[in-house]
């Protein structure tokens, strides 16, 4: 935008200069005829002159009795005699004494040159600015926050109490270092925040900026590296020079894995620009000068690819892990995000926290925002539990696809599929309780069954995995049992079941036949941070045994699901019929379908017909 304005200004200046030049050099009007002074005197003697105008430049403008005009120059030698001659002949005359300087003429003369000079100055100024930008190319792009007006504090961060405590000590050290120095403690050089995306690493660093009354520099790891060799290292030096001038201070480097990956993994060897940048960071963090109070806080979700020299004590002394929040953490995060939002009395944050197992802080923030949007779309003044339930479904599976047209046969298959998941989950002892069943299409799913864990789990047993496999395959088993045919609707279920069964065998050591062993390890390109292949460290015979064990886990789970559904086939049909009629079932209605006696089929016909 700035370039366009500059171009417009240049064009305007050029246009004005052209116009002024044209005006200045336009030919003047027709010149007044001139006469010699002797001729003028003869005309005066003959009575032909009516008016004479004299200026102090000794120039005459003569008007004759025929109203003709002439010009002449008065010689100095005639001086007063000329005036006396006019008075003797009775000729009117007018003497004008001007300043002798014509400002208008001077302005018109100098304006074109001024415009041209101004145009050249503007062009040179732009070139000088480009030159300055070239010299500033190696300057750090870190943003400085003074912390005088904090927008985020520790009160705005929930679900990561241990991490807050670690960083609170950093803030206290910067505010009152004498308390720690009295005990011989030294200031930590760096803190590495580690955790999955959305767990609040950047938010926590911003809270440090709000709490600490010291300068705070924020920069992303990718902002160090450019295509020109040496720029990244120069920017690192400039950043730490600025920080030293403002010490004590905090430097926050987000996504440090962009420059901190293991050295020697790049294509350019030791001359790789990224590695030079990393080398400079290592030097600055643990150089000869150990007296400066500069704390570096960095965030990454890939600590496994960072260079070991970056992680040793003296550089990043502390690694703070931010995991996905537990149920109490999710409730605390929800309380932070609903602050200032009008909630209905039905909105129960405890139930919402239970339903959102595995959600990160960013997911929960998005959940609350989606609920508020839904309430506003429905014209409500408050946010209720209905909006939160809908928002959870939207975050997990996507928005409803109400316009999707499916046949009655497909609707029936989907209903039995989801009813199978729900019924098997209800009957198996190690499965989570069923919270909601729906055949409303969302995202790529034709329907879904949502389970509600009763507790947070950090350890899983083989019995829990076996029941999880049975619930996952129950939809497939229901289709086969009722229709005697298989569809593509169970593709995702089969994929998840196969993946879980293989992990039970090769990773968790849950196979009785193969014992507590792990099989295969994954190699990855550290430079790219991606897994490229699983290295086979076992024989072909063991590979066959692994396949047999995976099949055994899946086959047994499928048999368990089929047995449960066959025993309660009437109840399966009842649940499916209600799903066809109502599309979504939850709460007390779902519990009655699981526990009440199943009505005779002729008593269920009206509900089935109402769906048609």
CATH class of the largest domain: Mainly Alpha
In whole angstroms, the N-to-C terminal distance is 61 Å
Going across the biggest sheet, name each strand in turn.
5-7-8-9-6-10
- How many β strands by DSSP? 15
What share of the residues does DSSP label as strand, in percent? Answer: 5-15%
Overall mean pLDDT stands at: 78
Question: How many helical elements?
Answer: 21
State the shape: elongated
Question: How would you describe this structure to a colleague?
Answer:
- With 612 residues, this protein is an alpha/beta fold.
- The protein has 5 domains: 2-26 and 103-138; 37-96, Signal recognition particle alu RNA binding heterodimer, srp9/1; 143-321, Rossmann fold; 327-397, Helicase, Ruva Protein, domain 3; 408-611, Up-down Bundle (Methane Monooxygenase Hydroxylase, Chain G, domain 1), CATH 1.20.58.
- Helices cover 50% and strands 12% of the residues.
- The chain is built from 21 helices and 15 strands.
- The strands form 4 sheets. A 6-stranded mixed β-sheet has the order 5-7-8-9-6-10. Strands 3-2-1-4 form a 4-stranded mixed β-sheet, with helices on one face. A 3-stranded antiparallel β-sheet has the order 12-11-15.
- A hairpin with a 4-residue loop joins β13 (521-525) and β14.
- α16 (462-483) runs antiparallel to α17.
């Amino acid at each position: 935008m700035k370039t366009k304005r500059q171009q417009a200004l240049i064009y305007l200046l050029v246009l004005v200069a052209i116009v002024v030049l044209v005006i200045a050099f336009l030919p003047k009007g027709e010149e007044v005829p001139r006469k010699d002074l002797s001729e003028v005197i003869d005309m005066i003697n003959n009575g032909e002159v009516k008016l004479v105008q004299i200026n102090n430049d000794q120039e005459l403008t003569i008007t004759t009795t025929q109203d003709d005009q002439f010009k002449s120059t008065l010689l100095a030698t005639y001086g007063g005699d000329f005036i006396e001659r006019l008075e003797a002949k009775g000729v009117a005359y007018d003497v004008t004494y001007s300043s002798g300087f014509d400002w208008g003429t001077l302005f018109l003369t100098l304006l074109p040159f001024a415009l041209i000079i101004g145009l050249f100055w503007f062009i040179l100024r732009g070139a000088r600015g480009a030159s300055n930008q070239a010299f500033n190319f190696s300057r750090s792009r870190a943003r400085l926050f003074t912390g005088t007006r904090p927008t985020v504090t520790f009160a705005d961060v929930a679900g990561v109490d241990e991490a807050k405590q670690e960083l609170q000590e950093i803030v206290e050290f910067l505010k009152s270092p004498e308390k720690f120095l009295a005990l011989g403690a030294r200031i930590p050089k760096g803190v590495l925040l580690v955790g999955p995306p959305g767990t609040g690493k950047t938010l926590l660093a911003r809270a440090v900026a709000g709490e600490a009354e010291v300068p705070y520099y924020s920069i992303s790891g990718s902002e160090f590296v450019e295509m020109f060799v040496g720029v990244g290292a120069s920017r690192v030096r400039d950043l730490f020079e600025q920080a030293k001038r403002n010490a004590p201070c905090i430097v926050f480097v987000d996504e440090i894995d962009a420059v901190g990956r293991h050295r020697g993994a790049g294509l350019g060897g030791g001359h790789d620009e990224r590695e030079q940048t990393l080398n400079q960071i290592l030097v600055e963090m643990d150089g000869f000068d150990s007296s400066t109070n500069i704390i570096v806080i960095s965030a990454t979700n890939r600590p496994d690819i960072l260079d070991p020299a970056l992680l040793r004590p003296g550089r990043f002394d502390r690694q703070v892990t931010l995991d996905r929040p537990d149920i109490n953490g999710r409730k605390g995060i929800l309380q932070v995000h609903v602050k200032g939002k009008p909630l209905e009395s039905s909105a129960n944050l405890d139930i919402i926290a239970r339903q959102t197992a595995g959600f990160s802080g960013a997911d929960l923030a998005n959940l609350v925002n989606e609920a508020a949007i839904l309430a506003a779309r429905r014209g409500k003044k408050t946010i209720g539990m209905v909006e939160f339930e809908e928002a959870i479904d939207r975050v997990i599976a996507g928005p409803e696809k109400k316009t999707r047209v499916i046949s009655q046969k497909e609707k029936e298959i989907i209903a039995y599929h989801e009813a199978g998941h729900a019924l098997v989950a209800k009957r198996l002892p190690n499965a989570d309780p069923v919270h909601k069943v729906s055949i409303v299409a969302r995202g790529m799913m034709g329907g879904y069954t949502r389970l509600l864990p009763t507790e947070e789990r950090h350890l899983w047993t083989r019995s829990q995995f076996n029941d999880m496999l049975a619930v996952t395959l129950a939809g497939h088993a229901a289709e086969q049992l009722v229709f005697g045919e298989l569809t593509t609707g169970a593709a995702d279920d089969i994929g998840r079941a196969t993946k879980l069964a293989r992990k039970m065998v090769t990773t968790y050591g849950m196979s009785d036949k193969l014992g507590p062993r792990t099989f295969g390890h994954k190699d990855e390109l550290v430079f790219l941070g991606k897994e490229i292949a699983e290295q086979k460290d076992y024989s072909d015979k063991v590979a066959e045994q692994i396949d047999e064990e995976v099949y055994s886990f899946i086959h047994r789970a499928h048999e368990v699901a089929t047995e449960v559904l066959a025993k309660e086939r009437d109840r399966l049909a009842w649940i499916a019929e209600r799903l066809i009629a109502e599309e979504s079932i939850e709460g007390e209605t779902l519990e009655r379908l699981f526990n009440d006696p199943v009505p005779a089929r002729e008593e269920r016909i009206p509900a089935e017909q109402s769906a048609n």
